[in-house]
Amino acid sequence: MPTIPLHPRPLVAPSPTENPLPQLLHTPSGLAILELQGTFHFPPSSDPTGSTHLGKLVFPLYNPALNDPSDTKWMKRVYLYVGKGQRMTGECKKLSKPLGIVRKRKNVDGMEGVEGIEEEGKEEELEIVEIVRWKIVFSSRPEPVGGGEEAE
Amino acid sequence: MATQQDDGGVPFSMAHEMHQFRLLELPPDIVELLDAPNPSPLSIKSQAASNAPDAKPAYAVLCAPGKAFQLRQVQTSNSLFITQPTLDAHSNVIPIPVTRAVALCTATLELHLSDASAATLLRDVLPLYDIVGGDVDATQNRTGKADIFEHVPLSEEQCEAGWNEVVAFEHEESSYQPSANALSQVWRSINAAALAEGIKLDSQFLTGDITRAVAEECHPSGLVESVLRHLSTKEADCTGPWCCLDRSQTVAFAGRVLLETKQGSDYLIAEFTDTWEDNLPDAWRKDVQLSAVEGVYDFPTMTTIRVKSKGYASTDTSSEATAATKPSARKWHEKFGKTRKK
């Protein structure tokens, strides 16, 4: 009957890079949460390490140079442009309860246990990578817009 | 700060290989705990549902110091993407910061404070150590305390408190809960040993002095130590060599176990209080008042007393509080089990 340790801090924190999101959504690791009705469909790719460019996030009212940091009006509007001419409207919301992002703890050398050669008999350990307090929510369906992102 | 706002938004991409992340909804006290500079470790205890018809439902609990939370998986109607900033040279020669979805969660884990009583759960699993007519009647379970705790869906501290509440003990690689008979006899042995050794039980004494003297009576030393720990004052740390009993708690204990040895049959009040007094150090005899065992007895007639049918009623107010809220926890547990089996 297993008791699995849940470490309050990650062994290896994801190294933060320059975060293009508004400051409010920043976390030490850079992880953020984006909630969406439905999901994204895009052609399958043979490159497992790569990524597919889907569109862009726009915060039309966000202007840290002009707005006071306490001004939260910008949170009320976020656009997500997807593919050719689709746009979703959403907002930034504070989570009623913060969400802990939990993952399996990686090996001590920082490598993720590779499928198949998973360390035998070693107990699984979990860790909380990050605590997220805000999310970007897109709860409405996408609407068509002209001259959108020329993705893919 | 160079955001991508100026040139029309933050590029958004999706990683081809998704990470396996889970989202855990954090109640305020867990957030507080995690925000502390050196947070205490947490753990998840889990047990798969067995296929046996009378099997207990599956459970998974998150254990934090002194408390435990039931884990409940809740499907979300929306997709929750976890995003990470990354440098991407996808459509550009110079890498630019983008936001990339690296994981997709369709469920979150909710935490619900468990109000199960460790003492009740331990009473369900521990075999009884009884003494009938001078003979020990006990079935070995070949399971140590640590293994027992593994199967109790509560935190280590709660298990430990429950263990102390039922005066459980380890003996020859098994663990037991003592019957009222066993407790009453061990207590009488402790009292006799204290008298013989000239030890005042409500001031500091060496635990070893008592256990050595009681050992002649062939009681398991684990049981004697458990009884001493159960009766010790809150300040006394009985894990060390010293011990000091809480006088009023001990008087109540001696009275309660004496009543319980009668197993619900009537006891003449006068006879009960006389025996109770005889089971205490001389200096404590005047403490014998029925009010000391308030709540655990009935008067079936004018002259007799008996323990309430509830049996193992605890005089400990904190445990009574948890016992009172127990049924709802049970119900929830059953519901959870049913949904899991579907």
Automatic annotation (TrEMBL), chain A:
Which GO MF terms are attached to this record? DNA binding
Give a yes or no for keyword Cell cycle in this entry: yes
UniProt entry tagged with the keyword Cell cycle: yes
Primary location group: nucleus
The GO cellular component terms are: Ctf18 RFC-like complex
Q: Which UniProt keywords apply?
A: Cell cycle, DNA replication, DNA-binding, Nucleus
What biological-process terms (Gene Ontology) are attached?
DNA replication; mitotic sister chromatid cohesion
InterPro entries assigned: Ctf8 (IPR018607)
Record localization? Nucleus
The family note in this entry says: Belongs to the CTF8 family.
The UniProt entry, under PANTHER family, shows:
CHROMOSOME TRANSMISSION FIDELITY FACTOR 8, CTF8, CHROMOSOME TRANSMISSION FIDELITY FACTOR 8 HOMOLOG (S. CEREVISIAE)
In Swiss-Prot or TrEMBL terms, this protein is called Sister chromatid cohesion protein Ctf8
Species per Swiss-Prot/TrEMBL record: Ophiobolus disseminans
From TrEMBL, chain B:
State the residue spans of region: Disordered. Answer: 314-342
- Which superkingdom heads the taxonomic lineage of this protein's source? Eukaryota
UniProt feature, compositional bias: Basic residues: 328-342
Q: Which GO terms describe its cellular component?
A: chromatin; chromosome, centromeric region; Ctf18 RFC-like complex
Q: Which UniProt keywords apply?
A: DNA replication
Q: Name one GO biological process term.
A: maintenance of mitotic sister chromatid cohesion
Q: Which InterPro entries match?
A: Dcc1 (IPR019128)
Task: Give TM regions.
Answer: none
Q: Which Pfam families match?
A: Dcc1
Q: Where is the composition biased (Low complexity)?
A: 314-325
Family designation: Belongs to the DCC1 family.
Name recorded for this polypeptide: Sister chromatid cohesion protein-like protein Dcc1
| Lineage, top ranks | Eukaryota, Fungi, Dikarya, Ascomycota, Pezizomycotina
